[in-house]
Amino acid sequence: MSQSSGVDPAKLAAAQAAVALVEDGMKLGLGTGSTAAVMVRELAARVAAEGLKLRCAATSQATADLATSLGLRIESLDEIGWLDMTIDGADEVDPDLHLIKGGGAAHLREKVVAAASDRMVVVADPGKVVEILGAFPLPVEVLAFGFETTRKLIRRALDELELGGHDVMQRLRGSDPVITDEGNLILDLHLGCIPDAPALARALAAIPGVVEHGLFLGMCDLAIIGRKDGSVIQLARDADIDADLLANEGE
Ligand SMILES: O=C(CO)[C@H](O)[C@H](O)COP(=O)(O)O
């Protein structure tokens, strides 16, 4: 049975539109986060109702646990090999469908899974649509080994890109460090605005202690933006973004 009461209607609308793209026999990547969780529930409801035969890989342990609890069988990415489509959430989506991801500390596995997919579909609400990336702190997964050295190297890279002076904060849950599914730590880069995302992505990727950053550039093929009234807007790469969406429709 489909979810309804208590579920954010914008997330539900986006999730339902994304799940409508799923076809019998598909190999799917399942994203992480609250919107992706709504999608997983919708997917499980469709599988139960229609008996779809799917093969699914999860982008986090949390998603694997949720999917399994709903009766979906999760396999490893390597068992499946290549995916037809990954459906995931995002923290920010810009007009070129470049993304910031990693608010749930899962962007490493999310990027590996999206990169192994023919198509990446993002499900989000209008609050995620931005003109320029960076208001959401950029998550960077780093090794615990040499953590402070890596933080210094990140600060140096930011200085070189004229993004210096911003907070580079370790993500904590309470007073404990957040540890990712891969056993690493997270630094959140509070940049406010990222004028040149490809340059920042290159600079971060060149730092040895950086495992993966949350900039997803040129990976998303379709963003499905749900609205509170249950309607959706589908944004394909290179399509214009509605000015109303950028104003977040007062949401
Ligand atoms: O990147 C992610 C997890 O690492 C999530 O997809 C992102 O944080 C969006 O989550 P939500 O749908 O809860 O806002």
From TrEMBL:
How is this protein named in the record? Answer: Ribose-5-phosphate isomerase A
Q: A single Pfam family, by name?
A: Rib_5-P_isom_A
Pathway named in the protein's UniProt entry? Carbohydrate degradation; pentose phosphate pathway; D-ribose 5-phosphate from D-ribulose 5-phosphate (non-oxidative stage): step 1/1
Would I find Isomerase among this entry's keywords? yes
Q: Which CDD domains does this entry report, sorted A to Z? A: RPI_A
Function comment? Catalyzes the reversible conversion of ribose-5-phosphate to ribulose 5-phosphate.
Positions of the catalytic residues: E110
Tell me the protein family, please. Answer: Belongs to the ribose 5-phosphate isomerase family.
Q: Does the keyword Magnesium apply?
A: no
Q: Name one GO molecular function term.
A: ribose-5-phosphate isomerase activity
Lineage, highest ranks first? Bacteria, Pseudomonadati, Pseudomonadota, Alphaproteobacteria, Rhodobacterales
Task: Give binding positions for substrate.
Answer: T32, G33, S34, T35, D88, G89, A90, D91, K101, G102, G103, G104, K128
Write the Enzyme Commission number(s) for this entry. Answer: 5.3.1.6
Origin species: Paracoccus rhizosphaerae
Q: Which gene encodes it?
A: rpiA
